[in-house]
């Protein structure tokens, strides 16, 4: 009878360990997905930053070759484009954060 109790306890411990292992595997999969999404968002953000820097450099070059009024109009248009790119980047970041939070639940 004592041997039977030991076996029951051992089986119970084994079952608990298997359950913990399954939970850890699920958490690891979720963590990997979140890391991959985070990496993608960072790459997208870097690409948008590069695009903004390129546009700013173009503006600087263009401003050296055009009149003040034309520069003003172009600056306003490019500023609007820059704001639009920043808005898109923020939306992507917000979506990634929301997805990460949802994945963690």
What is the strand tally?
0
Distance between the termini: 44 Å
Mean pLDDT: 87
Q: What is the helical fraction, as a range of percent?
A: over 70%
Radius of gyration: 27 Å
Give the SSE string: HH
Strand content: under 5%
* Discrete helix count: 2
Using the alpha-carbon principal axes, give the shape: rod-shaped
Summarize the structure.
With 105 residues, the chain is mainly α.
Structure, explained:
- The protein is an all-alpha fold.
- It has two helices and no strands.
- The chain has helices spanning 2-64, 68-104.
- The chain is rod-shaped and about 100 Å long.
- The two termini are 44 Å apart.
Based on the model shown, name its key terms.
105 residues, mainly alpha, 2 helices, 0% strand
């Amino acid at each position: 009878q004592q041997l039977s109790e030991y076996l029951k306890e051992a089986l119970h411990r084994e079952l608990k360990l298997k359950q913990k292992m399954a939970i850890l595997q699920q958490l690891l999969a979720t963590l990997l997905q979140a890391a991959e999404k985070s990496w993608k968002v960072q790459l997208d953000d870097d690409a948008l930053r590069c695009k903004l820097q390129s546009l700013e450099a173009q503006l600087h070059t263009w401003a050296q070759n055009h009149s003040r009024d034309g520069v003003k109009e172009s600056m306003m248009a490019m500023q609007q484009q820059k704001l639009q790119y920043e808005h898109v980047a923020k939306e992507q970041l917000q979506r990634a954060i929301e997805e990460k939070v949802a994945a963690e639940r």
